[in-house]
């Protein structure tokens, strides 16, 4: 390590750090003297133990210093001081930056609904009384209701919150859902696919304008509601541009958030979407985390998965700090059986539940410190392949991911 590097370190350390260093040194010196004097008294030493000890230490240090002064181009005393300042310079800022990352101890999750009181479609419908029970529970538990756009742009909230999103702009949202949300004073985000507007069982532009005026945040969900992995880049861009244009013409707004139709996407789709929007949402369960900004999980609620227990889990689970999953492309043309998840923390207590349309997998999992190497016991079938990994440690941590197998 050269002298200029130390000089830079001293400069970077700044006066506060240099003073801290002096204070720590003084503290250690005083503490050491005090305990040494006590030892002198306890053992009734004729000479001060501290004096003897310090003589030994200083004579040893002098020897070392003499030797190193010859070998180094600068005095060893200066070397030591600079070395300590250099170390402090790195240790102290690192500690303070950790102190501010209280992030992942407060849940800030996202729920997703489609239809309201349309009992013909139980997999996308929620009954009105279920919705009322969800909102009552969340209010009683003290959750703050915020729009997803506020969740994204606020640097990790310091209070537990919940964000509600609705996909597709069905008429039942306008007629059944919206009045309930208004009664509970819950702000909601509607992801809109423009081609169906004015069609049977869909809202009209007039109703959308009214919803917008009543505080509904309206965002983009493509034009034709096609599954994006089957489209090429140009086709995806056309979907986005067409719908953005219609929304601007009819509502006078330009959405900056996007939800993938069916939650299905690919690396290509994410790339194109990222050129138009600030973030994009899937339809897979998982605690909200900003780490995968173009594939954010949302908890789907419907008649089958709409119990209070489901709401309890969905609203309370916490995100892992960061998870890297390989392969990272959510679209697989050839189904893959080997996966690597890096949790960037000890992964020995993390369990992954993996399933596709055929059911759950009996996978073989190997734990290598922060990584889980997963080998599926069969080839996943066409359709959605879901990963749900959880850890229990002062709360439940939940990482979710969804692949689409061609
Ligand atoms: Zn949709």
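-> sequence recovered:
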């Amino acid at each position: 390590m050269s002298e200029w590097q130390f000089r830079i370190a001293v400069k970077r350390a700044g006066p506060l750090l240099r003073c801290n260093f002096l204070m720590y040194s003084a503290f250690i010196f005083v503490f050491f003297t005090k305990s040494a004097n006590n030892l002198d008294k306890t053992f009734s030493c004729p000479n001060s133990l501290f004096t003897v000890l310090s003589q030994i230490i200083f004579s040893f240090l002098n020897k070392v210093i003499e030797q190193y002064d010859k070998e180094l181009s600068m005095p060893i005393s200066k070397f030591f001081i600079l070395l300590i300042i250099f170390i402090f310079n790195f240790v102290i800022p690192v500690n303070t930056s950790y102190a501010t990352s209280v992030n992942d101890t407060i849940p800030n999750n996202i729920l997703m609904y489609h239809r309201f009181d349309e009992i013909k479609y139980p997999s996308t419908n929620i009954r009105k009384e279920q919705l009322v029970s969800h909102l009552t529970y969340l209010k009683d538990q003290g959750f703050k209701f915020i729009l997803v756009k506020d969740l994204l742009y606020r640097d990790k909230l310091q209070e537990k919150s919940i964000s509600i999103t609705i996909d597709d702009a069905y008429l039942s949202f306008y007629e059944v859902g919206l009045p309930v949300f208004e009664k509970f004073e819950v702000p909601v985000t509607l992801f809109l696919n423009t081609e169906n507007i004015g069609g049977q069982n869909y809202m009209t532009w007039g109703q959308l304008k009214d919803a917008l005026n009543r505080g509904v945040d309206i965002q983009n969900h493509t034009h034709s509601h096609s599954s994006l992995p089957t489209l090429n880049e140009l086709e995806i861009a056309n979907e986005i541009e067409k719908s953005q244009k219609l929304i601007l013409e009819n509502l006078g707004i330009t959405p900056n958030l996007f939800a993938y139709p069916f939650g299905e996407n690919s690396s290509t789709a994410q790339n194109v979407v990222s050129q138009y929007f600030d973030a994009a949402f899937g339809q897979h369960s998982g605690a909200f985390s900003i780490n995968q900004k173009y594939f954010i999980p949302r908890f789907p609620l419907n008649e089958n998965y709409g119990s209070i227990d489901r709401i309890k889990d969905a609203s309370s689970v916490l995100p892992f700090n960061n998870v890297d999953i390989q392969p990272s492309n959510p679209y697989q043309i050839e189904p893959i059986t080997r996966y690597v998840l890096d949790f960037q923390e000890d992964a020995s207590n993390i369990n992954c539940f993996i399933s596709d349309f055929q059911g759950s997998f009996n996978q073989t999992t190997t734990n290598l410190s922060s990584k889980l190497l997963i080998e599926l016991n069969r080839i996943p079938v066409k359709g959605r392949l879901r990963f749900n990994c959880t850890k229990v440690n002062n709360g439940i941590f939940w990482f979710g991911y969804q692949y689409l197998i061609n």
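Confidence is low (pLDDT under 50) at residues 89-103.
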